[in-house]
Amino acid sequence: MARGGKRQGMAEGRAERKGQKAPRKRFYRTRAHSNPLSDMYFPVPSCPKEDAPETPKVEFADVGCGFGGLLIRLAPLFPDRLMVGMEIRDKVAEYVQERIANLRREHEGQYQNISCIRTNSQKFLVHYFCKGQLQKLFFLFPDPHFKAQNHRRRIISLSLLAEYAYLLAPGGRMYTITDVPELAEWMKSKVAAHPSFRPLTQEELDADVAAGLLITSSEEGQKVERNSGQTWRMVYQRL
């Protein structure tokens, strides 16, 4: 790239980061995945009441929200529900925050019910929500961590399911989708072994608006669809 073009690109990036334009992903490049078991520091509330002592409270959480596609699709469908995206990668979280801010500028009075924070959900999720606070918990295209020694990094495990059961209200729902068949079987077996969840019937799944968004709302899902890939969608209800 010529020096003039490079300077222009840098200026455009700075302008977008200041909220003057809709953000573009090329200014927020980052690695595809991050190690959730690393010792990265995150400022987190000591307890949920410290973070949000007043009502109304967040009811939907998109864990590993990526570039925020699901949040943005859900926002107008559930305008009275507060939702948060939780993302471990700093540049991606920054992109989602700028994207939401831009949508609020372009659509006055809309998208006020969604937000994004950078955190390590695998370590700190219970610091943000009270028991039974959540109605919907989303895990879209999580990192498969293929190597056997890295399976402990997977976001669906028996120990973490205990946390999700604690945070979900009775009748609340947990949504998962992946394009990796081995990971789909892993998640299915782990949830089946936990007594607090049951899979939705096909009739319930067809009637669930949020479930219908899992495949194409996220950028990762759109990429899978463009490549004619297969996905495995599983939704569970908290007993």
UniProtKB/TrEMBL annotation:
Keywords recorded for this protein, A-Z: Methyltransferase, Nucleus, RNA-binding, S-adenosyl-L-methionine, Transferase, tRNA processing, tRNA-binding
Localization per record: Nucleus
One cellular component term from this protein's GO annotations in UniProt: nucleus
Gene3D superfamilies per UniProt: Vaccinia Virus protein VP39 (3.40.50.150)
EC number(s) given by UniProt: 2.1.1.33
UniProt keyword RNA-binding present: yes
InterPro entries: SAM-dependent_MTases_sf, Trm8_euk, tRNA_(Gua-N-7)_MeTrfase_Trmb
GO molecular function list: tRNA (guanine(46)-N7)-methyltransferase activity; tRNA binding
Catalysed transformations (reactions): guanosine(46) in tRNA + S-adenosyl-L-methionine = N(7)-methylguanosine(46) in tRNA + S-adenosyl-L-homocysteine
CDD domains linked: AdoMet_MTases
Function: Catalyzes the formation of N(7)-methylguanine at position 46 (m7G46) in tRNA.
Protein name in the entry: tRNA (guanine-N(7)-)-methyltransferase
Organism: Apatococcus lobatus
